[in-house]
Amino acid sequence: MVKKITLLGATGSIGVQTADIIREHPHEFKLVGFSAGKNMDITRNLIAEFKPEIVCVQRKEDAKDLAAEYPAVAIVSGAEGLIDIAVYEADILVNAVLGSVGLEPTLEAIKLGRTIAIANKETLVTAGHLVMESAKQFGAAILPVDSEHSALFQALNGEKKDQASRLILTASGGSFRDLTREQLKNVTVQDALNHPNWSMGSKITIDSATMVNKGLEVIEAHILFDFAYADIDVVLHRESIIHSMVEFQDTSVMAQLGTPDMRVPIQYALSYPDRLPREQAKRLNLAEIGKLNFQEMDYTRFRALQLAFDAGVAGGTMTTVLNAANEQAVALFLNEEIKFLEIEEMIERAMDQHEVIATPDLETILHVDAETRKSVKNMLK
Ligand SMILES: NC(=O)c1ccc[n+]([C@@H]2O[C@H](COP(=O)([O-])OP(=O)(O)OC[C@H]3O[C@@H](n4cnc5c(N)ncnc54)[C@H](OP(=O)(O)O)[C@@H]3O)[C@@H](O)[C@H]2O)c1
């Protein structure tokens, strides 16, 4: 049976690679609807190739143009349009949109019991408890797309969770892994966008350089797999060949390995519980690689990772603050309004100023998110 796929964030790095997988397996998957932001070139190409039934774009004026060009396609726009895509009839919703804008569409799809392949980690960090509780209530499966979480998911597959003792996430270290904090003072946006192992969207590339990305992933792992923060470790692994590991109580460690290629975890989330061939993909050749390196994580050097653990342990709205402060600060950095190290300084200040609300509802989360962004912008003054 062909699985119908809807895709949020089709024009981004994960979105385009999801389209690659759908293209590679036309007898398995069909793209019935997608959302884009502002990139109309990729949007038009995707409409022409996949002939979806419904498309959402961010701006009303783009929606008007597309509706005139493609009368057979339902064209929607804005935040409500994202929800229209999320609830459109499909077997799997891939959420590859950027930022906490993905939260409400995810919750609406969960209410319909939809299977969700989630790349959009900000949604889990900002309101993970709401997502997981309602997924349980409505019987919706949440499948990880992030390579680390796909690795953990695979390593835990078929095991008894209470016999697993530790999650070990690997971190490449990002573009500045060999720089001291002193050297970080004057790095530029261009330097930060130059990731050694992965080609990704600009926000997550900056997040990798600050190590906030690994922090968001630690929180994502806590949410998805329900492990205490004390039982989640991060190890620096420069080559990004081991995507993450699970240690069991008998000291066995299960790891998932592969060449760094996001299409592998994307495809696994779409084909789960099956695996499909990837004829053209580069195979892992350990003899060619020769050596894998590991290094203990330095939480003073990578201050933002410590902040993420602190936010996770504080719980409640503190992870919403971490995420919103980071999204706002990264936007300021990409716009060259602040320096690189100011990203983590702003996150820390926003966290210091916040009083945690333990089990926030959606309204509280949206309020805290908006207020945090405002207060980070005000720090500029
Ligand atoms: N890239 C990776 O390898 C990777 C790996 C693991 C996890 N992730 C996670 O996957 C998510 C997407 O990352 P990415 O690297 O693919 O990001 P990206 O390349 O920046 O793409 C983001 C997508 O979201 C759309 N978008 C952005 N803001 C929007 C808004 N306000 N309303 C509607 N649509 C909006 C963009 O549209 P336009 O471009 O058309 O404006 C684009 O389609 C992130 O949560 C990231 O952490 C990414």
TrEMBL record:
Pfam families reported for this sequence: DXP_redisom_C (PF08436), DXP_reductoisom (PF02670), DXPR_C (PF13288)
UniProt: NADPH binding residues: 11-14, 37-39, 120, 122, 201
Reaction catalyzed: 2-C-methyl-D-erythritol 4-phosphate + NADP(+) = 1-deoxy-D-xylulose 5-phosphate + NADPH + H(+)
The keyword GTP-binding is annotated on this UniProt entry: no
Record-annotated 1-deoxy-D-xylulose 5-phosphate reductoisomerase C-terminal domain positions: 142-225
GO molecular function list: 1-deoxy-D-xylulose-5-phosphate reductoisomerase activity
Superkingdom of this protein's organism: Bacteria
Pathway: Isoprenoid biosynthesis; isopentenyl diphosphate biosynthesis via DXP pathway; isopentenyl diphosphate from 1-deoxy-D-xylulose 5-phosphate: step 1/6
Top enzyme class: oxidoreductase
Domain DXP reductoisomerase C-terminal: 257-374
Gene3D superfamilies linked: 1.10.1740.10, NAD(P)-binding Rossmann-like Domain (3.40.50.720)
Known cofactor(s): Mg(2+); Mn(2+)
1-deoxy-D-xylulose 5-phosphate reductoisomerase N-terminal domain location: 5-128
Binding-site list for 1-deoxy-D-xylulose 5-phosphate: 121, 147-148, 172, 195, 208, 213-214, 217
Keyword Cell wall biogenesis/degradation: no
InterPro entries: DXP_reductoisomerase, DXP_reductoisomerase_C, DXP_reductoisomerase_N, DXPR_C, DXPR_C_sf, NAD(P)-bd_dom_sf
Stretches of the chain forming a coiled coil according to its record: none
Entry keywords, A to Z: Isoprene biosynthesis, Magnesium, Manganese, Metal-binding, NADP, Oxidoreductase
EC number of the protein: 1.1.1.267
Residues noted as binding Mn(2+) in the record, renumbered to the chain: 146, 148, 217
Function text: Catalyzes the NADPH-dependent rearrangement and reduction of 1-deoxy-D-xylulose-5-phosphate (DXP) to 2-C-methyl-D-erythritol 4-phosphate (MEP).
Family indicated by similarity: Belongs to the DXR family.
Entries under PANTHER family matching the protein: 1-DEOXY-D-XYLULOSE 5-PHOSPHATE REDUCTOISOMERASE, 1-DEOXY-D-XYLULOSE 5-PHOSPHATE REDUCTOISOMERASE, CHLOROPLASTIC
Protein name: 1-deoxy-D-xylulose 5-phosphate reductoisomerase
Organism (species): Planococcus wigleyi
